[in-house]
């Protein structure tokens, strides 16, 4: 998964969480206003309207909580997919590094053997 794709999912999740917070704050404010209105007196129709509206807000909050849970799940899945890809990439990097190191050791041995043979020839001809 591309990092910018998971960043987009994180942004969507954060926005969903913010909307949930706004809804919850609005519900708290409305409930406080309802309590205040109750102390000043309220008709049965107004009471019922307050109750119905609170139910609608509660339903909206429930729906937004579902959205938040869903978006958090998508973020978790994207993060797991990214981590799996990253582990795979690191494995390939490790294999490539090992192969490079092995090739360098071979080359170093060839160079050393060549130097030893050269030194042996020079030593042989100096006699």
Describe the structure.
With 127 residues, the protein is mostly helical. It has a single domain (3-126), classed as Helix Hairpins, CATH 1.10.287. The protein contains 2 helices and no strands. The protein has helices at residues 3-40, 44-126. Helix 1 (3-40) packs antiparallel against helix 2 (44-126). The chain is rod-shaped.
Quaternary status? single chain
Mean of pLDDT: 91
Q: How much beta, percentage-wise?
A: under 5%
How many extended strands? 0
Range of helix content: over 70%
| CATH topology heading | Helix Hairpins
What's the helix count?
Answer: 2
Span of the ends, CA to CA: 68 Å
Shape: rod-shaped
Order of helices and strands: HH
Report on the biggest sheet.
Answer: none
Task: Tell me the number of structural domains.
Answer: 1
How does CATH name the architecture? Orthogonal Bundle
Keywords: Bacterial flagellum biogenesis, Bacterial flagellum protein export, Cell membrane, Cell projection, Chemotaxis, Cilium, Flagellum, Membrane, Protein transport, Transport
Biased composition (Basic and acidic residues): 98-120
Organism: Herbaspirillum frisingense GSF30
Protein name: Flagellar FliJ protein
């Amino acid at each position: 998964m591309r990092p910018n794709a998971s960043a987009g999912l994180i942004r969507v999740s954060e926005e969903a969480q913010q909307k949930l917070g706004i809804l919850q704050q609005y519900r708290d404010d409305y409930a406080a206003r309802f309590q205040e209105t109750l102390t000043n007196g309220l008709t049965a129709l107004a009471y019922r309207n307050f109750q119905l509206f609170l139910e609608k807000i509660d339903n909206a909050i429930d729906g937004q909580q579902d959205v938040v849970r869903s978006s958090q799940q998508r973020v978790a899945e994207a993060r797991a997919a990214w981590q799996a890809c990253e582990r795979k990439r690191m494995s390939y990097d490790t294999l490539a590094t090992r192969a490079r190191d092995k090739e360098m050791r071979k080359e170093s041995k060839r160079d050393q053997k060549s130097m030893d043979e050269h030194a042996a020839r020079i030593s042989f001809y100096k006699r």
